[in-house]
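This section describes the prediction task in plain terms. A model, or a person checking by hand, is given the sequence of a single protein chain and must write out its three-dimensional structure as a string of tokens. No templates, partner chains or ligands are provided. The sample shown here is typical of the held-out split.
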Amino acid sequence: MCGISGIYNFDRDHVADERVIIRMTDKIQHRGPDDSACHIDGHVGLGFVRLSIIDLSHGMQPFFSPDKSIVLTCNGEIFNYRELRQKMESKGYTFKTNCDIEVIVYLYMEYGTEFLNMINGQFAFCLYDKRNEVLFMARDHFGICPLFYAKLNHALVYGSEIKSVLEHPDVTRRIDHKGLDQIFTFPANIAPITFFDDVKSLEPGHYAVLKNNKLEVKEYWNLDYPTKDYDYGEKSEEYYIENLNDLLLKSVNYRLNADVPVGFYLSGGLDSSMIGGMMRHLDKTKEFNSFSICFPNTENKDINEQRFQRLLSEKVNSKHNEVPFKWDDFESKLRNVIYYSESPLKETYNICSIALSERAKSEKIKVVLSGEGADELFGGYAGYKFDGRREGNIGYKDLEHLREDEVRKKLWGNPDFIYEKNENEFRETKQALYSPLLNKSYKDFDCLNESAIDHSRIKDRHHFHQRSYVDFKLRLGGHLIADHGDRMTLANNVEGRYPFLDVDLINFAKTIPPSLMVKDMQEKYILKKVAQKYVPSEIINREKFGFVAPGSPHLLKTNSEWVNELLSYDRIKRQGYFNPDTVERLKKMYSRDGFILNPPYDLDLLIIVLTFNMFIDVFDVPNAS
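The expected answer:
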């Protein structure tokens, strides 16, 4: 993977400023430390930093069409590029390199924007078509690769990370209050919203075309589950197991393609263990590196998964790298994480994520495979098991429940769909936490007043598919493969690949009956059947483990100077985002002996406040006004 940035000035006589583009690309050098480039074509400028993975000698970008009228920069990998390349060669196109990205230029020349659904990959690219005066940007189906932009009065500015876009002198650092409200309400920001007023995130499965200085954003793919009346036919359980197995193997094999060493993250759970087992099945000769966070200290023994990690590593004969985690120097680690995450945090586990990529870098591993996406696709969270019990058992609703129904109808289009909590009740908590200044305009940024998803995608769907769709859109795309995934791996020049997020695999998984996803209250039933070939039964049958990182109650009890300063009454009042009296009450509550938060059911309000204040420092954000 790499990093891209650029400027498109609406005035064609206004030459793109090379110095600004270089500053923008310098900010994302961690995404591509191997090489960099800046291409200026009049009012358009494109920046690029490269992490060399395929065709190490000839894969430098930008790529051009033969007549130089089309120029492309891309962050990502096209996994089915060999098939696509063969198709384009049969049409008379000649390739100059063996790089996977080059095929995009010729696909665009042949099919225009329609080629996006031909690609199996993870990507975010920008293509400038000089002949038609079009800027074409696109992001992969699931949002693995990020792409941010700011549409100013005189230009469009874009980059792989927000910090790159902020380097343009006309992009402001004003906080988008809706972005703040979303982080309290949902697992993460929902694209296109970010924490900055000027900066938007291109949505997963979308592309944008800038023509005649007008930007149009369109969807080309979305997760579309069958309706409740869908006929699954008489296919056997074995049919689904065999096809799922074949597609997963194909996906893993695609993601092993690299001209550099490939490793994998190993948590000790089912999903990452399956990836490691399949890697060994596909290649019995190569030595793969596995990477695990472990907690060997006595006080952390309840969250230590070393036994299961070592069990899988021994089975697949990986070179196992255990990263013993210590919570010393917590402040500098947290600030570093926030810089790369570009967001306040709801929990501190990203510190573990960045430690894993740091170890991978030290072992000279540029690519790691990981198990994200399996929980959302195959029902790995507790909610999937209990939805069936709630369905059809609504009962009497009092006034408070009716108010909550109104909120749920706005968010999900379905008053009976329960995602994480009672949102209407929690709205009062948020308003108590916000400053009087923010509460004056609260109705303007209250994220409960509009839909959180495309309602048509869960209407008349099975309750399993409803939750899966919402998890894909809110938890996976905005958090697990964003601040927790892409930003934490590439902070240390490592590319993350996710075999469960393969478009062919997901298109098949949509056709698996929900009764095979959760069966007899067993989550991920069908996936566990596939795993039997590759994973020890002790891992398959173990109870799902959710690691919980130390939160604000732990930090408050350390009485650290930096924690006290970030949550001090004077600072909170001066910044103007939160109510200092409410923060003080929370500090007293969280500091009491015996006080315990129970994530994910209890939200750690103070860790959001604390990391938001760090975020303000790191990104030089002005006080509320």
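For orientation: The first helix runs from residue 18 to 26.
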